[in-house]
Amino acid sequence: MSITRIYGLFLRHFYLITRSFPRILDLVYWPSIQITLWGFISNFFATHTTYYNNAVGVILTCAILYDFLFRTSIGFNMLFLEEIWSRNFTNLFIAPMKIGEILTSLVITALIRSLIGLVPAILLTSPLFGISILDLGIFLFFLFLSLYIFGITLGILVSSGLLRFGPSFENIAWSTMFLLAPFGCIYYPIETLPEIFQKIAYILPLVYIFEEARNILINQTVNIQNVYYAFMWNAFYFSLSIVLFYYSFNAAKNKGTLINMGE
Amino acid sequence: MKNLIEVQNIKKNYGKKEAVKGISFNVEEDEILGLLGPNGSGKTTTIGMLLGLLKPTSGQIFINNLKLEENRIQILEMINFISPYIELPKKLTVKQNLYVYSKLYKVKNIKERIEYLSEKLRIGELLNSITGELSSGQKNRVSLAKALVNEPKVLLLDEPTASLDPEVGDFVRTFLEDYKKEKKISILLASHNMNEVTRLCKSVLMMKNGEIIDQGKPEDLITKHGRTNLEEVFLKLSRSKSEYN
C-alpha cells in the first residue's frame, strides 16, 4: 500500500469537488432538503398518532442515518462513474496502483463527501425541530460506522458491476439503495413487513441499525446484540464485496471492459 | 541493444473470436516500432495486453525483462500510454492533473518534473487552465506531459497525432524523436499516418486480422512490395485477400 498513491487519487477527487460550487452545493443540498421534508412530515404525524412519543425525533434521526448511508453509497459510485464520464478510466488503471490502493482512496474520499452533506443536515435539525441526533449518545458512532461500512460495501458491489459490465450498469448504480430501502426498516419496525420480507431483512445489517436507533430513542435502552449483528453482517458483505471486486477486475481484463470503458 | 519489450506468441480470444492470433515481436532500447494495420486488425488489443488492461489468452509479455503477469505494478511504473480516446479529468487544471498523476506514479521531484515537461512541451502558460477548455493540440501536449511524468522506459502511443494540425503534429513528432534519443526509451507507435511512421520508426509491423502479415524497415518494405511509399504498401497488404487470408 502506498500512501502517496492513495493521497494522489484522493487529490484528483478533492480538486474536482473544490473547483465546482454546484458540486459542493449538491453534497449539502439533498441531505438538508431531505431532513427538512421529513421534519415537517414527522411534525404532522406527531400530532395525529400516539405510536411514537417522539415521532419527529425518531423519524428525523432515521432520515439522517439513512441519508448518510445513501450518500456514502452513491458517493462511492460517483467517484467511479466520474472516471468513466471523463474518459480517464484507462489512465487510472494503467497507473501503478494496486486495487487495494484504489479502493482505500475511494473509501476515504467517499467518507469526506458524506460528511460534507451530513454536518449541515445535523445542524439544521436542532434549530428547525429542536432535535439532536446526538441524543443517541456514544452508540451514534457505532451506528454511523456500521452504516458507513454498508454504504461502502454497496458502492464496491456496484463498482464491481461497472467493471464487469461497463457503463451499461450505471442505472443499477442509482437504484441499489432504493431496492434495499424497504427491507432496511428505516422508518418502521420490522414487524411491519410481511414474514417473507422479514427473513430477507434479517440478513441485512440495516434492520439492526435502524431497530437499534429506534430502541435507543424510544426505550432509552441499548441492545448491544443489534450492534453486534449489524457488524457481523457488515463484515460478511464487505468481505464478499472485496472478493467480487477482484473477481470483476480479472473478468474485465479477460473481457476487455477496461479498455472500452468509455464506450 | 537490449530488448525493453518482448512479446512471445500472445493470443487473445473473445469467446470464439480470435482478436490476436499468436504474435511475437521485440522492441529494443532507443527504438520506435510502428504498429500498422487496418481497423480491427488487433493493434489496440495488443496495446491493451502490453498495458495489462487485457489478459492474453496465451503467450507471454516481458517489459525490461520482467514478466508482465507477475510484475504488473513494477512494470506500470516504467511505462506510459497516450491515446486520443482517453482523456485527463476535464474539470481539473493542467497543473492539478499533472500533480495528481505525479503522485500516482510516485514521482520524487514533482515541481521540477512539471517545470521540465512544461518547458519541453510548451505548456507553461496552460498550467492554470482548465484541461477541458484546451484545444485539441493543447490537450495532446498535456496528455503527452502526463505520459512522460514518470520518465517511462517504454511509451505506447496510439494515434498520438490524430486530429492535430500539421504544425502541432510536426512539433509532437520532433519532440518524440528528440526525447527518445535523449532518454533511450522504447516506443511502440500505432498510427494510420504513414508519413509519421516512415519518419519516426526504425521498423514496422503490419497487422491484419490479428496476425503480423509483414515486418521490416519502412524502406525495405517499400522495395519488397515494389511501391513508392509506405501508404501504398499498407493499402496493398490491407486489400490483399488471397495472399494473406
Describe the model.
The complex is a heterodimer of chains A (263) and B (245). Chain A has ten helices and no strands. Chain A is globular, with a radius of gyration of 19 Å. Chain A has one domain (3-255). Chain A has 263 residues and is an all-alpha fold. Helix content of chain B is 37%, strand content 26%. Chain B has 245 residues and is an alpha/beta fold. The two termini of chain B are 34 Å apart. In chain B, the strands form two sheets. Chain B has a six-stranded mixed beta sheet with strand order 6-7-8-3-9-10, sandwiched between helices. Chain B has a four-stranded antiparallel beta sheet with strand order 2-1-4-5, covered by helices on one side. Chain B has nine helices and ten strands. Classes of the chains: A mainly alpha (263), B alpha/beta (245). Chains A and B meet through helix 1, helix 4 and helix 10 of A and helix 1, helix 2, strand 6 and helix 3 of B.
In a few lines, what is going on in this structure?
The complex is a heterodimer of chains A (263) and B (245). By secondary structure, chain A is mostly helical. Chain A has helices at 3-19, 21-46, 55-85, 89-93, 99-129, 139-165, 170-184, 195-202, 205-219, 224-255.
Shape of chain B: globular
Topology, number of strands of chain B: 10
Strand content of chain B: 25-35%
- How many DSSP helices of chain B? 9
Major sheet size, sense and barrel closure of chain B: 6 strands, mixed
Structural class by helix and strand composition of chain A: mainly alpha
Number of domains of chain A: 1
Largest interface: A-B, 34 and 36 residues
Q: Give the end-to-end Cα distance of chain A, rounded to a whole number of Å.
A: 31 Å
